[in-house]
Amino acid sequence: MNNYLDYLPEILDEYEEELLLEQPNKRCITGLRNYTLMKLILTAGLRPKEILNLNWENIDLIEYSIMIRAKNLTQNRKIYITLDAVDALREWKYRQRKEVGECSFVFTTLAGNVIKARYMRSMISRYADKAFICKDVSPYTLRHTYGAKLYNTNEDLKKVRSNLGLADSNHLKIYSILADQDVGFLY
Fold first, then answer.
1. Domain ranges, ordered by start, for the chain
2. DSSP codes, 128-180
3. What is the full DSSP assignment across 18-78?
4. Contact 144, 36 (CB under 8 A)
5. What domain of life does the UniProt record list for this protein's source (predicted)?
6. Dist. CA 100–CA 113, nearest whole Å
7. Which of 11-25, 82-96, 109-123, 169-183 has the lowest mean pLDDT?
């Protein structure tokens, strides 16, 4: 019987996270952008589409939060982010304004256009290869890593559901199964 539980997503351990985040050259504007993008997925669990559609007006760098706006108002959610993610966002915002110009979207090309999903997937995979991470690493790998860490931290599936914006509670089983498989030692 095939179902979604037959496939458990890969997640990164703490060491692999660090290796991945060390790959972008943050002195280069695109390296800083890519670092910030990966850091935000790893510390907020945003979906790839949410990352690509993220506007500066939805980020509160003083309150350390991001408001994810959904088509259905009841699915809007506020996510609190870490200080290091806020620092990365502040640095990226400064560089983006200085070198690209005023942009409403957070993650843009040097021409000010929103980066493409295909670029994001290949960029993350390329950095994982460069870091010698022997896993198929994608934006969803980073999202699942966040979800597993969040569950291992507080064992509260409601919090995981809320933070990840999951409408289907069946997907929550994945995080409890990952925890039951003793991935807790990774964090």
1. 13-135
2. HHHTT--S---HHHHHHHHHHHHHHHH--HHHHHHHHT-S-GGGHHHHHHHHH
3. HHHHHSS-TTSHHHHHHHHHHHHHHHH---HHHHHT-BGGGEETTTTEEEEP-SSGGG-EE
4. no
5. Bacteria
6. 10
7. 169-183
Residue 88, SS3 per DSSP: helix
The phi and psi torsions of 77 (rounded to 5 degrees) equal -145, 150
Sign (positive/negative) of CA torsion 152, 155, 160, 162?
negative
The first and second tokens of residue 178, run together, are 């990952």
Write the pLDDT tens digit of every residue in 45-95: 888 999 999 999 999 999 999 998 877 656 788 889 999 999 999 999 999
In words, the CATH class of domain 13-135 is mainly alpha
Q: Is the CB of residue 36 less than 8 Å from the CB of residue 25?
A: no
How close are the terminal C-alpha atoms of the chain, in Å?
Answer: 32
Three-state DSSP state, 79: strand
Q: How many residues does the chain have?
A: 187
Sole residue written with tokens 């929550």: 172
Beta bridge partner(s), residue 105: 55
Global pTM reads: 0.85
